[in-house]
UniProtKB/TrEMBL annotation:
Belongs to the glycosyltransferase 28 family. MurG subfamily. InterPro entries: GlcNAc_MurG, Glyco_trans_28_C, GlycoTrans_28_N. Residues 159-169 have a biased composition (Basic and acidic residues). This is UDP-N-acetylglucosamine--N-acetylmuramyl-(pentapeptide) pyrophosphoryl-undecaprenol N-acetylglucosamine transferase. Its main location: membrane. One of its GO terms (molecular function) is undecaprenyldiphospho-muramoylpentapeptide beta-N-acetylglucosaminyltransferase activity. Coiled coil: none annotated. Pfam families: Glyco_tran_28_C, Glyco_transf_28. Residues 2-133 form the Glycosyltransferase family 28 N-terminal domain. One of its GO terms (biological process) is peptidoglycan biosynthetic process. It comes from Thermus thermamylovorans. CDD domains: GT28_MurG. UDP-N-acetyl-alpha-D-glucosamine binds at T9, G10, G11, N119, R160, S188, Q280. Pathway: Cell wall biogenesis; peptidoglycan biosynthesis.
Amino acid sequence: MILLTGGGTGGHLFPALAVAGELGRRGHGVFYLGALGGLEARLLPEAGLPHALIPAGKLDRAAFRPREALGLLRGLWAARRVLREVAPRAVLSTGGYAGFPGAFLAELKGIPVLLHEQNARLGLANRLLLPRARGLALSLPLPLPPGLGQKARRTGYPVREERHPKAEAKRRLGFDPGKPLLLVLGGSQGSLELNERLPPRLKALGLPVLHQVGERWVERYRHLEGERYRVAGFLDAPLAMSAADLLLGRAGAGTLAEAAYHRLPALLFPLPPSLDGGAQAANARAYQEAGGAELADWEGLEAQVERLLADPEPYRKGMARLSPEGAAGRIADWLEEFL
């Protein structure tokens, strides 16, 4: 049995689900340990994976928060029971506060733990777990101390490896195959800033737009709907990215990995470092340096969109350099080394 843990947000959950699917195809038993209240509470039952949900206090670099510390202690106690019942031979933690309790206790019990880091900056949970972990799977290159760097391999970020012909994908989504399509993504939960600021700017261009506003914001932004502007709470990423010609979005690791798989040029609006410790800013720099994306310029946004649409090929090649094809298989191979 292999235990997968991590979650809270789609960025930590979706790569673990991709690896779970690969392990299942290889005949391995898989059990998922997630957090109460995270996205996994809804998606794990739909995926049909055996799982348990436990409390998980959010780790914070900046401050000690008693309520979160209590949640962490409760999570450790609950994870102890799960580890005893499941008795995994190896653990994959995809990070975040949801992935810490199970991986931490597994390390103490001598169970091999493989960490996966989605961002171009090491998260706090993985930073705490890395000294005892057997390995660190990286989505993007990132600097590590020499002793810990020996544990790392670049595997990529596991995504659903599913593409559709562009014209067919546009038709399925209700768009004209002959016109370029802009895709707006603010992450799995949407982005209030992008929801507010982008529609008037993009509507002025007169181009078709597909905008994922987040499920909690759908009714608030339903008024944006029109012949060329479509709003959705949550989109099927392979279909939407197959159809799109340009992505405008945050710089979350999952969104960028999927864009790279689909060779989709991107204009990025990373979260301020004060909100995520600089992870999205680091991701945006990595994709910009690879030539697949640009940081969005609010002052000249319309001209920037038109320029990328006029000559997308260099950006497609840049995205291809960071494509995560085969990542789930590489991580599964590594886990099998521990069995």
